[in-house]
Structure formats: C-alpha cells, structure tokens
C-alpha cells in the first residue's frame, strides 16, 4: 500500500484530504506542520504539501527537502490558493513535481497523486531471477531450471512480485493490496492459500523453504539465493 504524507495546517482541509486519499486505497499520515512530519516522510512514497503553513512555509520546506539526500527524490504535490502563473512556476522550479490550486475536486486530487506514484515507481524488469528460479514477465512464464511451472495468473503475479522484492517481508494485507488490488473483497486467507500452492509448484518444504519463507507475526518473503546476492553486489566470489 502506497504511503502518502499530507502537510496542511487547516484541520478541515486536512481531514478532507485524508478521507479521499484513504478512500482511494492509500495509507495516509497527516500533519499540521512540517516539524511533526519528519519521521513519517522517511517512509513515504509521496507528499501533499500546502504552500501556506505556520512557522515555515511549504516553499521553504520544499527547498530543504530537495537538499536532503534521502528525501530529494520524494514526489511532491503542492497545494495552494495562489493562482498566479509566476507563483506556480516558482513552486515547480523549487522542486514540486505537480501543482494543484484550491479549490479542487477530490477526483483531480486522487488522480494527480496516483500519477506521481506511478512516475516514481521503477519499471518492472522483463526478466527476474533468484537462484534456479527464472521469470519471464513478457511471456508470463516461470521456470525452475529446465522445468516450467504451471501457474495461474494470480500465482504468477504473486511469485513475480515477491521475486522482484526478494528479501523484503510483506504482510498479508500488503500482498492483497499490491497483487490483488485495493478493490479485492477476499480475505487474508487467500494469500495463505496461494503461498501454499506456490510452495507446491516450487518444491518448497514449509519447515525448510528454499524460496517462500513465513516470518512469524509479520508475513511472507522470498528468500534471496546466494547467486542473486552476488549478482546484486555486482560480481561473483573469486
């Protein structure tokens, strides 16, 4: 689930922003000033930032954000009541990725935030690999060595997602959101069932999995094989 931070000092506007973004299936952390938002920004996928803020203006904060090595690439949608072209240009030149003038519709807000999130996400590679596991995204095929795996579309999507993000733990809720989509009405048991089916295809033993590992109390992750670790590091061992 993508995480959006909102910094807006007007409580009513802040609540409206939170409501519509959460309704669109996004995780939202909302703050009335820049100071309180610092920790949440480290885990954010996008920022919705008001221009006029107490203490430090949104424009001043944006300058600091773009100078921060960790946050300089965070997508930013700036909100303002200022409609003059010169002011819009100033916001964009300071580092805003997009600009929305108040008042605005909920549909336009959500569409612009989603567009920022899409542009900021890396493209899925055409081929994924992890040890003997190979995935051809274009052909929607997965193999273990010479053996082709007979997967359903959802099994393939789940396997590809976990392989692309090997080493990272995902909760059942996160997997439902990222693989099935926010509109899916099924429950977390669906994820467990698909993991069980994938383990059968992969020849995984649940007690000693070579690929799909259960992390107690947290969720699932794809184990990174040594060959993939060396490739990620940029070379093989001597």
From TrEMBL:
InterPro entries in the cross-refs: CheY-like_superfamily, OmpR/PhoB-type_DNA-bd, Sig_transdc_resp-reg_C-effctor, Sig_transdc_resp-reg_receiver, WalR-like, WH-like_DNA-bd_sf
Organism superkingdom: Bacteria
Domain OmpR/PhoB-type residues, every copy: 125-224
CDD domains in the record: REC_OmpR_PhoB, trans_reg_C
Domain Response regulatory: 3-117
Keyword entries, A-Z: DNA-binding, Phosphoprotein, Transcription, Transcription regulation
Any single Pfam family the record assigns to this protein: Response_reg
Chain residues forming the annotated DNA-binding region: 125-224
Residues with PTM 4-aspartylphosphate: 50
SMART domains with a match to the protein in the record: REC (SM00448), Trans_reg_C (SM00862)
PANTHER family given in the database record: DNA-BINDING DUAL TRANSCRIPTIONAL REGULATOR OMPR, REGULATOR OF RPOS
Protein name as catalogued: Sensory transduction protein regX3
Annotated organism of origin: Deinococcus xinjiangensis
Name of the gene: regX3
